[in-house]
Structures are given as structure tokens and as C-alpha cells.
Amino acid sequence: MSLRTRASELVDRARSAATGDRTKRLVEAFRRVRDGDPWFDKRGLDAIRRRPVDDGSIERRRRAQRYLGVAFVGLLAAALWYPLVAGVGVVGCAAAAVGVGAVRGRFYCNHLCPRGGLLDGYVRLFSRGKRTPDWFKHPLTRAAVGLTAAGLLGTGLYAAWRQDGSLGVPFLTMLGVSTLVAVVLGVVYHQRAWCQICPAGTLSHAVHRVAEGLGRDPAPRVEVDADACVSCGRCGTVCRQEIRPGQYADGEVTDHGNVFSPGGLEGSTREVDGVVDHADCLQCAACVEECPTDALSLDEE
Ligand code: SF4
Ligand code: SF4
Fold this sequence. Notes:
12 helices, elongated, 4Fe4S_Fe_S_CS, 4Fe-4S ferredoxin, single chain, binds iron/sulfur cluster, mainly alpha, three-stranded antiparallel β-sheet, transport, two-stranded antiparallel ribbon
């Protein structure tokens, strides 16, 4: 359905239920879309915008991420003197990502990951904010990155064990190199580009899918009100996992990066029904905050 047809429908529907200032402003905005007004520029949308989850929780989370970023730099610095600290950090974070993944999907990656805090809190300031190519988040790319990381770490640990037993150095090397890659990707693409191929994130994604398959409740998911969505695409511009929540309103959606449903380079296509059931969703609510028509919601309980 075209944007204008959709806007026209919404004008009719909202008009019949028009009460309150906000509804009136929405009706006016939809009418301008229907009539071809270039309303879908940033100023027009901002004029009618409300922040449904602006209760301070997102700002608190961002502040926590900045602290996590500082903690991550501290951990790296400490590991230069005591390399085993890097080993504890890598093993601890990977175990936490997988453990939390079984229950809450990729919640860990947004709320608890120290490197994620560095990327969101600081690398974001230098990022070009570009989408990655589709092949980048393809399951085969993710598998290749995971196997390469495991292979290099395993080889390094074996060599260190044979030499002098200083097992911390291979962990420090892995942490340093992967962080450098994450920062470069964050600047060239967007701050969380690395998180689409991070081995711990991929494991978290996979474990959650398996847990769901075994009957566990899915993690909290963003829901889309198909009647309110006007397909403006803004939610997709703020999603750090390159998900386009508005496309999950109804009908078919094409996912890239679905580890158990790879499809070709063009991704895997499936039926959806108003729920963003993409296992890479970080449950960050950035899309909810961005949506100009309050079509998105995330129940975090
Ligand atoms: S969900 Fe909201 S932000 Fe996303 S496309 Fe629909 S109206 Fe736009
Ligand atoms: S909550 Fe929204 S913005 Fe955040 S990762 Fe999920 S789909 Fe993307």
C-alpha cells in the first residue's frame, strides 16, 4: 500500500475518533501526507512527535553505557600488565552473553556488554552511520568470523601452554584485535556494525532460538501496530542492528542475519504478524522512541 493511500485511510479513521490535541495534530499531519505535502521531512515529523518511552529510562541506559565503556578501557589497560585479566573478561563476557541469551535474547549486548558500551558511548561520536552490506551480516560471514576467532584463540592458547603457560596473552591479543576491528567498523559503518558478526552475539542469538524451540518464552519483543504505522521508515534508521521494525507490521519481511534461516545473499523471507521477532534485536527501544506515530511498543517485563 502506498504511503498516500495509507495516510488517506488514517485521516478517515482518526477523524471519526478525533479527540484531543494530539489526535488532531496527527490527523492534520496525515492529511498533508495524503495531499502530497513534503511532510515526511525531519521537521514535519518532529513537529508531531511524542516520545512514548521518554521516562528517562533511555537516557539512564545511555549513561550506564558510557560507564561500561570506561570500564572496558580500564579492563584493557589492566590486561596490558596482567594479561590474565583479558582471559577472565573474554570468558566471563562470552558466558554471560550466552547465559542471558537463553532467557532474554540479546539483552546482554545492549545493557551489559562493556565493549558495546564503548561503541555506543564513544565510537558513535565518530561514526559515519552507514548500513553494512547484506553479505556482511549473512550467517556464513558470522560463522566464518566465529570459527576464525575460535581457531586463532585455540591455536594461541595451545602454543602458550606449550611454551610457558602464559595463557592470558592469547586472550589479550584476541580482545585487542577484535576491539580494533569493532572500532574501525564502527567508524566506517555505524557504531554497532561489529555486533552483527560478534561471535558472542551470534551465540546469544542462536542459543535464544534453541531455547525458544525447546519451549521457553521468547524475549521481550517490539510490537508494531499496523494501523498506526505509516511506513515512514524512521525506525529502521535508528536501529543499530539494521532491523526495520515497520516492515514487521504484517505480510512478508526479509531478514538478513537470521542464523537458522540464512536464505541467499538476499536474506530469508517469511510471514510476520506485527511482532519484531528478529533474534538480533537488542531490546533497546530506540525504534520505539523514534516512531512519530507511536506505532511501536516494547514491553520489557
Ligand atoms: S513503525 Fe513508526 S517509525 Fe517505523 S515505519 Fe511505521 S510509522 Fe515509521
Ligand atoms: S529495540 Fe528496535 S532499535 Fe533496538 S535493536 Fe530492537 S528493533 Fe532495533
